[in-house]
Amino acid sequence: MVKQLIVERSKTVVLVLDYQNRMLGKLAESSQTEILKKANAILSEARRIGIPIIYEVRGGERIPEREIHLAIAPKAGELVLTTQRTGPFTTTNLDEVLKKQNVDTLVLMGIPTSGCVLTTVRFAADMDYKLIVVSDCCAVPQDDELHRVLIEKVFPHQSMVVTSQEILDVLGKI
User: Fold this and answer.
1) 138 a catalytic residue
2) Whole-prediction pTM value?
3) Pick the CATH number of 9-171 from 3.90.1010.10, 3.90.78.10, 1.10.10.60, 3.40.50.850
């Protein structure tokens, strides 16, 4: 049975996980360009229809390799959380922020799939969030097979896995 992709604007947040120079720089240039293009399209559509965007970055230093890539940089008013761990829930107030906004659905994009995305899926599912993982806006540098296994075998047990085009199609109808 195939689940239907449903996004309620007032209950959804796009979470951008570790789209920092240091992580994107580990990808092949063509992969980096493609992921940034697809992520940017989703962010533009989310902004157009008023879905909040929250960025998560790892580490507290403001040095270039830790900064969010300029191609998808946060806009004024968008929240940027700095974590000291792999996922955004254990060392930030993300859950509190989401609860205050009555959010129950998270759209996840992140690098690496095997780090921040996996940790977020596991933790958020245990907290009863509905999860949508955008498969082609995630990657594992130098390990396409690990990415494939997570996207095809692990994540579907706790989240809906979609492509960037599938989420764009749904957002375009809101």
Assistant:
1) no
2) 0.93
3) 3.40.50.850
